[in-house]
Specification:
Layout (H helix, E strand, L loop, with lengths): L1 H11 L17 H11 L3 E4 L6 H6 L1 H22 L2 E7 L23 H16 L3 E6 L2 E2 L6 H10 L4 E4 L3 E2 L2 E2 H14 L3 E4 L7 E2 H12 L6 E4 L32 H12 L2
Parallel strand pairs: 1-2, 2-3, 3-8, 4-7, 5-10
Antiparallel strand pairs: 6-9
Helix pairs in contact: 1-7, 2-4, 4-5, 6-8, 8-9
């Protein structure tokens, strides 16, 4: 989802884009990564690849660390050898969600609760060691065209008249994939190593709040939305109850805040209705 949005955005800006899918480049294959970057000679590498099945990672942590940690280190090393800046997308799940209110910033120490979060945090750290030109972008609650998660599919499901169950006691900051893509390119161009939190503006919401806002944006007000509690799902992996994020660095570097997530949701609903 993010990779496609990024490739489209960069191509529209006139960049020469080499977009590798999983079949084109296995990020856990060190030789393949070095050969690919040696051919392309990129100015910047932006990693949107990850294993994001949170429960799958919990059940198979070895694979989670292979992809989300070792794979990221391989890409960072290959980028350094190719003379390229390296940007990698991380997650809000590096935090435990126990902050009672407010937003997680770069001042907060990561403390992942799940194998997925732990593997992504390890990927951040390995990349920073492998290449001094590493930019870590933490994001979360990403929605957009082609996504397989609840947020990305909620508008389409509502238009089909499906009854939805949405969690009312888990909070985050929704992020529109095209907006994230634009910021990823800006950070690659800026080439300033560090950790950035990239989410759409606003106070954040719960999954239920997002679903109700999506219902309004899509004009699907007759859809039934059942409010449920996170613990009632009894999923293998624990999730942070509050993973809302805010960046302390972006505005100081002249990067304007991303638009409010509700405005982005309105655009997404209009596009999916065409």
């Amino acid at each position: 989802m993010v990779g496609r949005a990024l490739a489209d955005h960069c191509a529209a800006r006139g960049d020469e884009v080499a977009a590798f899918d999983r079949a084109g480049l296995d990020i856990t294959d060190e030789r393949a990564a070095r050969e690919a970057f040696g051919r392309v000679r990129p100015r910047a590498v932006i990693n949107c690849a990850a294993w994001t099945d949170v429960d799958g990672c919990e059940l198979d942590p070895q694979r989670a660390f292979l992809v989300n940690s070792q794979g990221v280190e391989i890409l960072a090393t290959a980028s350094r050898l190719a003379g390229a800046a390296f940007v990698t997308v991380s997650t809000d799940y590096v935090f435990d969600g126990r902050k009672p209110e407010g937003f997680y910033t770069q001042r907060d120490d990561p403390h992942p609760m799940s194998a997925y979060g732990a593997s992504k945090l390890e990927g951040e750290r390995r990349a920073q060691i492998a290449s001094a030109r590493t930019v870590v972008v933490r994001s979360g609650w990403i929605f957009g065209a082609g996504g397989r998660n609840f947020l990305a599919q909620v508008v389409e499901r509502m238009r089909r008249g499906e009854r939805l169950r949405a969690i009312s006691d888990s909070y985050g900051t929704p992020t529109y994939a095209p907006d994230l893509a634009a910021r990823l390119r800006e950070l690659a161009e800026l080439d300033l190593p560090g950790v950035f939190h990239v989410v759409n503006s606003g106070e954040g919401t719960s999954y239920e709040g997002f679903a109700r806002a999506a219902s309004e944006a899509a004009g699907a007000t007759g859809v039934e939305i059942e409010s449920i509690l996170m613990d009632s799902l009894k999923r293998p992996a624990p999730r942070p109850r509050n993973s809302r994020m805010r960046c302390l660095l972006s505005e100081g570097l002249g990067l304007a805040p991303l638009r409010d997530w509700r405005d982005a949701l309105g655009e997404f609903a209009a596009l999916t209705g065409e």
